[in-house]
TrEMBL record, chain A:
The keyword Iron applies. Residues 29-105 form the 2Fe-2S ferredoxin-type domain. It comes from Streptomyces zhihengii. SUPFAM superfamilies: 2Fe-2S ferredoxin-like (SSF54292), CO dehydrogenase ISP C-domain like (SSF47741). Pfam families: Fer2 (PF00111), Fer2_2 (PF01799). InterPro entries: 2Fe-2S-bd, 2Fe-2S-bd_dom_sf, 2Fe-2S_ferredoxin-like_sf, 2Fe-2S_ferredoxin-type, 2Fe2S_fd_BS, Beta-grasp_dom_sf, Diverse_Oxidoreductases. CDD domains: fer2. This is (2Fe-2S)-binding protein. The keyword Iron-sulfur applies.
UniProtKB/TrEMBL annotation, chain B:
Signal peptide: none annotated. It comes from the Bacteria. PROSITE patterns: FAD_PCMH. This is Xanthine dehydrogenase family protein subunit M. Keywords: FAD, Flavoprotein, Oxidoreductase. It comes from Streptomyces zhihengii. Residues 1-178 form the FAD-binding PCMH-type domain.
Length: 184, 290
């Protein structure tokens, strides 16, 4: 089975992704969705997690998986604009969905987004494993119509665990990105 | 940590969903937000053969206030959407408070209100709020549609009045009196964790006498279902909800609660925490009746 990623009008060449044969191909479904602005059509087994679809089928390995039961937040992407766990979402549930992963923020040589720049400048990472998830949640915070208050920021960040315990700088980075977006 | 193989269907009508649940000879399970079910599939604690995704059924996606003033939340409505709804915030703020205590925004954005009620984790906030708010549950199945009162809905840990071939289609919250105040207090190890123990309080003020006309006190994490503390309610009713009345309610709660020891807490620690949370919740709820 194949998943084809048709080229965006001016984007890179189309990619074709080979699917490894599975031992128990039970129920397969054809899905269409948008990933980082590009239409994707694929056939997926019902039990395929969205995290594995992104990483193994589309080669988008920026979405990390840690716990695979919704606790660590490393696998968070924006699903129809809202941060969501890809390890608690089946690929087949994403028919018609609009997905954004960390790769979609500054594709190719595009300049880093304010959130990415703030993480860089504030050193909001140590090993970087948790970073993509934090960056996607922070991106959603900057895309809200009004500036979220301190409590809302803390609430959103509590949905992520950093095993390097770099929370101070992560929080600083998020505040800097919010300052840039909404004014201090 | 990958699920065992299963089939997946996404019906567009309640009728089709019920037919799939009833007619399929395979072991079928309802999939709503997946925020409790998919972890169980990943850990292989559940091995259903078919998932029936109900989130694409348009008639289940509504939050409405009907002509009787009742709030009706359909089974496909996500928790964060319900909490942000102006009708919910204005008319049933205890519900919005309870949702705000569920996990993290990343979870609430996917999880449904009805999914949490149907899942019925004994530490979950929504079953507790539903009992405090006298919610009614509309359950549809091959034997027709019935309405279940909150007191009869929660049967045991992870068990409700919904049979495997049935669907909770909506939850209905009756309107509240004008002079009511509410609070939901809970003890967690970290912000966003499931409650070790939690207390929801709803107080209705009699504006003429400035006393409690009606009290509701419900506890989560202290038994296999949400526990309604009727002795604490009686201790508050007719009083000025002052320190003496609150202390009496806390004593009543200590007498009525019989939680079990578990890895998170001893029974004694749970009971005492519940009593403290109750005092705090009563204070806040009463202030909010003004
Ligand atoms: C990291 C994390 C933290 C969490 N923290 C909390 C917390 O603090 N408090 C809390 O209360 N919850 C918490 N949850 C659970 C979360 O709130 C779930 O969203 C909720 O319990 C289940 O709702 P769902 O829509 O995701 O249901 P699903 O996971 O899709 O389904 C759960 C169960 O209910 C059944 N079901 C669902 N809808 C229906 C229906 N309409 N009719 C019949 N059966 C149905 C399913 O078959 C399944 O058995 C947490 C989850 C995670 C991953
Ligand atoms: S891998 Fe998804 S939350 Fe940990
Ligand atoms: S930077 Fe290492 S886990 Fe967060």
């Amino acid at each position: 089975m194949t998943a084809t990623v048709p080229a965006a009008p001016s984007g890179p060449a189309p990619a074709t992704v080979r699917t490894p044969p599975l031992a128990e191909p039970s129920a397969w479904h054809a899905i269409r969705l948008t990933v980082n602005g590009r239409p994707v059509a694929a056939e997926v087994e019902s039990r395929l997690l969205l995290s594995d679809f992104l990483r193994d089928r589309l080669g988008l390995t920026g979405t990390h998986t840690g716990c695979e039961h919704g606790v660590c937040g490393a696998c968070t992407v924006l699903l129809d604009g809202e941060p969501a766990r890809t390890c608690l979402t089946l690929a087949v549930q994403c028919e018609g969905a609009d997905l954004r992963t960390v790769e979609g923020l500054a594709p190719d040589d595009a300049p880093l987004t304010p959130v990415q720049r703030a993480f860089h400048e504030c050193h909001g990472m140590q090993c970087g494993f948790c970073t993509p998830g934090f960056v996607m949640t922070a991106t959603a915070l900057t895309e809200q119509p009004a500036r979220p208050d301190e409590e809302q920021v803390a609430d959103a960040l509590s949905g992520h665990l950093c095993r390097c315990t770099g929370y101070r700088n992560i929080r600083r980075a998020v505040c800097r990105a919010l300052d840039e977006r909404f004014g201090e | 940590m990958k699920p065992t193989p299963f089939d997946y269907t996404a019906p567009r009508t309640v009728g089709d969903a019920l037919a799939l649940l009833a007619d399929d000879s395979r072991d079928a399970k309802v999939l709503a937000g997946g925020q409790s079910l998919i972890p169980m599939l990943n850990m292989r604690l559940a091995r259903p053969e078919v998932l029936v995704d109900i989130t694409r059924i348009p008639e289940l996606g509504r939050v409405v206030v009907d002509s009787d003033g009742c709030l009706r939340i359909g089974a496909a409505v996500r928790q964060s959407r319900a909490a942000a709804d102006p009708a919910v915030r204005d008319g049933w703020p205890l519900l919005a408070d309870a949702i705000g205590l569920i996990g993290h925004p990343q979870i609430r954005g996917r999880g449904t209100v009805c999914g949490s009620l149907a899942h019925h984790d004994p530490a979950a906030e929504l079953p507790t709020a539903a009992l405090a708010l006298d919610a009614r549950f509309v359950v549809a199945g091959p034997r027709g549609t019935r309405t279940v009162e909150a007191a009869d809905f929660f049967v045991a840990t992870f068990a409700t009045a919904v049979e495997p071939d049935e669907l909770l289609t909506e939850v209905v919250f009756p309107p509240l009196a004008a002079h009511h105040g509410r609070a939901f207090e809970e003890l967690t190890r970290r912000h966003g964790d499931f409650a070790t123990v939690g207390v929801a309080v709803l107080l209705e003020r009699d504006p003429a006498s400035d006393t409690v006309r009606r009290a509701r006190v419900v506890c989560c994490g202290a038994g296999p279902t949400p526990v309604r503390l009727t002795a604490a309610e009686a201790a508050l009713t007719g009083t000025d909800a002052g320190p003496a009345a609150r202390a009496e309610a806390a004593r009543a709660a200590l007498g009525a609660l019989a939680p079990a020891d578990d890895v998170h807490s001893t029974a004694e620690h749970r009971r005492e925490s519940a009593a403290h949370l109750l005092v705090r919740a009563c204070t806040t709820a009463w202030e909010r009746t003004r």
